[in-house]
Queue: 3 jobs
Job 1
Amino acid sequence: MCGGSRTSRGTRARLRGSGTEVRNLAQRPSGAAKEIKELISTSVLKVRERATVANEAGTTMSEVTQAVARVTDIMDEIAAVSTEQSKANSLEDQGRQLTRCIAVFRLEPTTIK
Protein backbone atom coordinates (compact mmCIF):
# COMPACT_ATOMS: atom_id res chain seq x y z
CA MET A 1 0.00 0.00 0.00
CA CYS A 2 2.88 2.16 0.54
CA GLY A 3 3.54 2.23 -3.20
CA GLY A 4 -0.09 3.02 -3.92
CA SER A 5 0.07 5.92 -1.54
CA ARG A 6 2.99 7.36 -3.44
CA THR A 7 1.13 7.04 -6.67
CA SER A 8 -1.82 8.90 -5.18
CA ARG A 9 0.38 11.68 -3.96
CA GLY A 10 2.12 11.92 -7.32
CA THR A 11 -1.18 12.00 -9.10
CA ARG A 12 -2.47 14.70 -6.79
CA ALA A 13 0.67 16.76 -7.32
CA ARG A 14 0.32 16.46 -11.08
CA LEU A 15 -3.33 17.44 -10.87
CA ARG A 16 -2.44 20.48 -8.77
CA GLY A 17 0.17 21.35 -11.35
CA SER A 18 -2.40 20.88 -14.08
CA GLY A 19 -4.77 23.21 -12.24
CA THR A 20 -2.13 25.94 -12.20
CA GLU A 21 -1.45 25.32 -15.86
CA VAL A 22 -5.15 25.52 -16.67
CA ARG A 23 -5.42 28.80 -14.71
CA ASN A 24 -2.45 30.22 -16.59
CA LEU A 25 -3.93 29.17 -19.91
CA ALA A 26 -7.29 30.72 -18.94
CA GLN A 27 -5.60 34.01 -17.99
CA ARG A 28 -3.89 34.38 -21.39
CA PRO A 29 -7.12 34.85 -23.38
CA SER A 30 -8.42 37.18 -20.68
CA GLY A 31 -5.28 39.34 -20.93
CA ALA A 32 -5.43 39.23 -24.72
CA ALA A 33 -9.10 40.29 -24.65
CA LYS A 34 -8.25 43.25 -22.42
CA GLU A 35 -5.41 44.23 -24.71
CA ILE A 36 -7.67 43.97 -27.78
CA LYS A 37 -10.31 46.09 -26.02
CA GLU A 38 -7.69 48.77 -25.25
CA LEU A 39 -6.45 48.72 -28.86
CA ILE A 40 -10.01 49.11 -30.15
CA SER A 41 -10.69 51.99 -27.74
CA THR A 42 -7.48 53.72 -28.80
CA SER A 43 -8.35 53.23 -32.48
CA VAL A 44 -11.85 54.64 -31.97
CA LEU A 45 -10.41 57.73 -30.28
CA LYS A 46 -7.90 58.23 -33.08
CA VAL A 47 -10.63 57.87 -35.72
CA ARG A 48 -12.78 60.46 -33.90
CA GLU A 49 -9.84 62.86 -33.61
CA ARG A 50 -9.00 62.46 -37.28
CA ALA A 51 -12.64 62.88 -38.26
CA THR A 52 -12.65 66.17 -36.36
CA VAL A 53 -9.48 67.26 -38.16
CA ALA A 54 -11.03 66.27 -41.51
CA ASN A 55 -14.17 68.30 -40.71
CA GLU A 56 -12.06 71.31 -39.76
CA ALA A 57 -10.08 70.95 -43.00
CA GLY A 58 -13.35 70.82 -44.92
CA THR A 59 -14.54 74.00 -43.24
CA THR A 60 -11.23 75.72 -44.00
CA MET A 61 -11.39 74.63 -47.65
CA SER A 62 -14.92 76.03 -47.87
CA GLU A 63 -13.74 79.34 -46.43
CA VAL A 64 -10.81 79.44 -48.88
CA THR A 65 -13.18 78.72 -51.77
CA GLN A 66 -15.45 81.58 -50.66
CA ALA A 67 -12.48 83.93 -50.36
CA VAL A 68 -11.29 83.00 -53.85
CA ALA A 69 -14.80 83.67 -55.17
CA ARG A 70 -14.77 87.12 -53.51
CA VAL A 71 -11.35 87.92 -55.02
CA THR A 72 -12.60 86.77 -58.43
CA ASP A 73 -15.62 89.09 -58.10
CA ILE A 74 -13.36 92.01 -57.16
CA MET A 75 -11.08 91.29 -60.13
CA ASP A 76 -14.11 91.17 -62.44
CA GLU A 77 -15.24 94.55 -61.10
CA ILE A 78 -11.75 96.00 -61.63
CA ALA A 79 -11.73 94.65 -65.20
CA ALA A 80 -15.16 96.17 -65.88
CA VAL A 81 -14.07 99.56 -64.48
CA SER A 82 -10.88 99.39 -66.52
CA THR A 83 -12.90 98.68 -69.68
CA GLU A 84 -15.21 101.61 -68.93
CA GLN A 85 -12.21 103.86 -68.30
CA SER A 86 -10.68 102.80 -71.62
CA LYS A 87 -13.95 103.60 -73.37
CA ALA A 88 -14.05 107.00 -71.66
CA ASN A 89 -10.45 107.72 -72.72
CA SER A 90 -11.33 106.69 -76.27
CA LEU A 91 -14.35 109.01 -76.26
CA GLU A 92 -12.16 111.80 -74.92
CA ASP A 93 -9.65 111.23 -77.74
CA GLN A 94 -12.47 111.19 -80.28
CA GLY A 95 -13.78 114.46 -78.83
CA ARG A 96 -10.37 116.13 -79.24
CA GLN A 97 -10.15 114.89 -82.80
CA LEU A 98 -13.61 116.23 -83.54
CA THR A 99 -12.68 119.60 -82.03
CA ARG A 100 -9.65 119.81 -84.34
CA CYS A 101 -11.76 118.87 -87.34
CA ILE A 102 -14.38 121.48 -86.54
CA ALA A 103 -11.70 124.13 -86.02
CA VAL A 104 -10.97 123.97 -89.75
CA PHE A 105 -14.50 125.16 -90.48
CA ARG A 106 -14.41 128.00 -88.01
CA LEU A 107 -15.14 131.32 -89.62
CA GLU A 108 -13.38 134.41 -88.68
CA PRO A 109 -15.67 137.20 -87.63
CA THR A 110 -15.98 139.64 -90.44
CA THR A 111 -17.70 142.84 -90.55
CA ILE A 112 -20.67 142.99 -92.79
CA LYS A 113 -20.71 146.04 -95.03
Job 2
Amino acid sequence: MLIISIALLAMSRAGQQQIDHLEHLRNQTLSQWVADNAVAEARLNYRDLQAGYRSGTQMMGQQDWQWEMQVQPSPDPGLWRLDVQVGSADKRSQLQFTGFARRHD
Protein backbone atom coordinates (compact mmCIF):
# COMPACT_ATOMS: atom_id res chain seq x y z
CA MET A 1 0.00 0.00 0.00
CA LEU A 2 2.83 2.38 0.86
CA ILE A 3 4.51 1.82 -2.50
CA ILE A 4 1.26 2.56 -4.36
CA SER A 5 0.74 5.73 -2.31
CA ILE A 6 4.25 6.97 -3.08
CA ALA A 7 3.84 6.18 -6.78
CA LEU A 8 0.50 8.04 -6.93
CA LEU A 9 2.01 11.04 -5.15
CA ALA A 10 4.93 11.12 -7.60
CA MET A 11 2.57 10.91 -10.57
CA SER A 12 0.45 13.71 -9.15
CA ARG A 13 3.49 15.92 -8.68
CA ALA A 14 4.71 15.21 -12.24
CA GLY A 15 1.27 16.08 -13.59
CA GLN A 16 1.22 19.39 -11.71
CA GLN A 17 4.67 20.27 -13.05
CA GLN A 18 3.41 19.66 -16.60
CA ILE A 19 0.42 21.91 -15.98
CA ASP A 20 2.67 24.67 -14.58
CA HIS A 21 5.01 24.36 -17.58
CA LEU A 22 2.12 24.59 -20.05
CA GLU A 23 0.80 27.71 -18.30
CA HIS A 24 4.26 29.28 -18.51
CA LEU A 25 4.48 28.49 -22.26
CA ARG A 26 0.99 29.92 -22.80
CA ASN A 27 1.89 33.14 -21.01
CA GLN A 28 5.17 33.47 -22.92
CA THR A 29 3.33 33.01 -26.21
CA LEU A 30 0.64 35.54 -25.34
CA SER A 31 3.14 38.14 -24.13
CA GLN A 32 5.15 37.68 -27.35
CA TRP A 33 2.01 38.34 -29.38
CA VAL A 34 1.35 41.50 -27.36
CA ALA A 35 4.91 42.71 -28.03
CA ASP A 36 4.56 41.85 -31.73
CA ASN A 37 1.32 43.83 -31.90
CA ALA A 38 2.90 46.89 -30.23
CA VAL A 39 5.83 46.83 -32.67
CA ALA A 40 3.52 46.28 -35.66
CA GLU A 41 1.41 49.26 -34.63
CA ALA A 42 4.53 51.42 -34.29
CA ARG A 43 5.70 50.31 -37.74
CA LEU A 44 2.34 51.20 -39.25
CA ASN A 45 2.57 54.68 -37.69
CA TYR A 46 6.27 55.19 -38.42
CA ARG A 47 5.71 58.77 -39.56
CA ASP A 48 4.52 59.67 -36.04
CA LEU A 49 7.33 57.88 -34.17
CA GLN A 50 9.53 59.99 -31.95
CA ALA A 51 12.14 59.12 -29.36
CA GLY A 52 10.56 58.51 -25.98
CA TYR A 53 8.27 56.16 -24.11
CA ARG A 54 4.87 54.74 -24.97
CA SER A 55 2.69 52.38 -23.03
CA GLY A 56 -0.62 50.61 -23.31
CA THR A 57 -2.71 47.62 -22.39
CA GLN A 58 -4.07 44.83 -24.52
CA MET A 59 -6.48 42.01 -23.84
CA MET A 60 -5.05 38.72 -25.06
CA GLY A 61 -6.14 35.25 -24.02
CA GLN A 62 -8.82 36.64 -21.67
CA GLN A 63 -6.09 38.43 -19.72
CA ASP A 64 -4.93 42.05 -19.56
CA TRP A 65 -1.32 42.67 -20.56
CA GLN A 66 0.58 45.89 -20.02
CA TRP A 67 3.35 46.95 -22.36
CA GLU A 68 5.91 49.73 -22.35
CA MET A 69 7.99 50.73 -25.33
CA GLN A 70 11.11 52.83 -25.48
CA VAL A 71 11.70 54.35 -28.90
CA GLN A 72 15.28 55.40 -29.51
CA PRO A 73 17.64 55.92 -32.44
CA SER A 74 19.42 52.81 -33.68
CA PRO A 75 22.97 52.64 -35.06
CA ASP A 76 21.36 52.74 -38.53
CA PRO A 77 20.14 56.32 -39.07
CA GLY A 78 17.19 55.03 -41.12
CA LEU A 79 15.73 52.97 -38.27
CA TRP A 80 14.24 53.41 -34.81
CA ARG A 81 15.01 50.83 -32.14
CA LEU A 82 11.86 49.70 -30.29
CA ASP A 83 12.47 48.07 -26.89
CA VAL A 84 9.24 46.56 -25.56
CA GLN A 85 8.54 45.13 -22.12
CA VAL A 86 5.33 43.17 -21.60
CA GLY A 87 3.93 42.03 -18.30
CA SER A 88 0.73 40.39 -17.17
CA ALA A 89 -1.45 42.27 -14.73
CA ASP A 90 -0.62 39.74 -12.01
CA LYS A 91 3.13 40.19 -12.72
CA ARG A 92 3.61 36.44 -13.18
CA SER A 93 4.81 36.76 -16.76
CA GLN A 94 7.38 39.19 -18.12
CA LEU A 95 8.92 39.50 -21.58
CA GLN A 96 11.45 41.81 -23.23
CA PHE A 97 11.50 42.22 -27.01
CA THR A 98 13.40 44.44 -29.43
CA GLY A 99 12.18 45.43 -32.87
CA PHE A 100 13.01 48.07 -35.44
CA ALA A 101 10.91 50.48 -37.47
CA ARG A 102 11.56 52.72 -40.42
CA ARG A 103 12.55 56.25 -39.49
CA HIS A 104 10.80 59.11 -41.24
CA ASP A 105 12.69 62.39 -41.07
Job 3
Amino acid sequence: MLSRPSETDAELTREGRRGTVPAVSRGPVEMNGNHGNDHLLTPSDVAERLQVNERTVTKWLRKNDLRGYKIGKEWRVSDNDLKAFVEAGANLPPADR
Protein backbone atom coordinates (compact mmCIF):
# COMPACT_ATOMS: atom_id res chain seq x y z
CA MET A 1 0.00 0.00 0.00
CA LEU A 2 1.37 3.43 -0.93
CA SER A 3 1.17 6.16 1.65
CA ARG A 4 1.40 9.87 1.07
CA PRO A 5 4.45 11.44 2.78
CA SER A 6 3.58 13.85 5.55
CA GLU A 7 4.18 17.54 4.92
CA THR A 8 6.46 19.32 7.35
CA ASP A 9 6.67 23.06 7.88
CA ALA A 10 9.85 23.14 5.78
CA GLU A 11 8.01 21.54 2.87
CA LEU A 12 5.01 23.87 2.97
CA THR A 13 5.05 26.89 0.71
CA ARG A 14 3.35 30.26 0.70
CA GLU A 15 0.34 28.79 -1.08
CA GLY A 16 0.39 25.70 1.13
CA ARG A 17 1.32 23.41 -1.80
CA ARG A 18 4.51 21.63 -2.80
CA GLY A 19 6.58 22.82 -5.75
CA THR A 20 6.27 26.59 -5.36
CA VAL A 21 8.46 29.15 -3.61
CA PRO A 22 9.19 28.27 0.06
CA ALA A 23 7.59 30.44 2.72
CA VAL A 24 9.84 33.24 4.01
CA SER A 25 9.98 34.79 7.44
CA ARG A 26 9.21 38.51 7.33
CA GLY A 27 10.62 39.55 10.71
CA PRO A 28 14.00 41.12 11.48
CA VAL A 29 17.01 39.15 10.25
CA GLU A 30 20.25 39.04 12.22
CA MET A 31 23.36 40.10 10.30
CA ASN A 32 26.66 38.32 10.81
CA GLY A 33 30.14 39.62 10.09
CA ASN A 34 31.33 43.18 10.69
CA HIS A 35 27.94 44.48 11.80
CA GLY A 36 27.94 42.99 15.30
CA ASN A 37 24.43 42.39 16.62
CA ASP A 38 22.81 44.50 13.91
CA HIS A 39 19.42 43.32 12.59
CA LEU A 40 17.98 43.77 9.11
CA LEU A 41 14.50 45.26 9.05
CA THR A 42 11.91 45.14 6.30
CA PRO A 43 10.43 48.40 4.94
CA SER A 44 7.28 47.45 6.85
CA ASP A 45 9.27 47.22 10.11
CA VAL A 46 10.88 50.62 9.44
CA ALA A 47 7.51 52.19 8.58
CA GLU A 48 6.01 50.89 11.82
CA ARG A 49 8.91 52.24 13.91
CA LEU A 50 8.81 55.69 12.27
CA GLN A 51 5.00 55.77 12.00
CA VAL A 52 5.05 56.47 8.26
CA ASN A 53 3.63 54.65 5.25
CA GLU A 54 5.63 51.71 3.85
CA ARG A 55 5.64 53.44 0.43
CA THR A 56 7.46 56.39 2.00
CA VAL A 57 10.21 54.07 3.27
CA THR A 58 10.51 52.44 -0.16
CA LYS A 59 10.76 55.88 -1.77
CA TRP A 60 13.57 56.86 0.66
CA LEU A 61 15.40 53.64 -0.23
CA ARG A 62 15.06 54.16 -3.99
CA LYS A 63 16.22 57.79 -3.73
CA ASN A 64 19.19 56.74 -1.55
CA ASP A 65 17.96 58.93 1.31
CA LEU A 66 17.90 55.84 3.54
CA ARG A 67 20.70 53.31 3.21
CA GLY A 68 19.46 49.80 2.58
CA TYR A 69 20.28 46.44 1.07
CA LYS A 70 18.44 45.07 -1.95
CA ILE A 71 18.30 41.29 -1.57
CA GLY A 72 16.64 39.94 -4.67
CA LYS A 73 13.51 42.05 -4.99
CA GLU A 74 13.29 42.78 -1.27
CA TRP A 75 14.74 45.75 0.64
CA ARG A 76 16.32 45.46 4.09
CA VAL A 77 17.59 48.20 6.42
CA SER A 78 20.01 47.68 9.30
CA ASP A 79 19.27 49.04 12.77
CA ASN A 80 22.43 51.19 12.59
CA ASP A 81 21.49 52.67 9.20
CA LEU A 82 17.99 53.49 10.47
CA LYS A 83 19.46 55.17 13.57
CA ALA A 84 21.86 57.23 11.38
CA PHE A 85 18.96 58.24 9.10
CA VAL A 86 16.86 59.43 12.05
CA GLU A 87 19.78 61.29 13.66
CA ALA A 88 20.64 63.00 10.35
CA GLY A 89 17.16 64.52 10.36
CA ALA A 90 17.44 65.93 13.90
CA ASN A 91 17.21 69.67 14.40
CA LEU A 92 19.96 69.65 17.07
CA PRO A 93 23.32 67.84 17.18
CA PRO A 94 23.61 64.91 19.59
CA ALA A 95 24.20 65.88 23.22
CA ASP A 96 27.71 65.23 24.58
CA ARG A 97 27.78 62.49 27.19
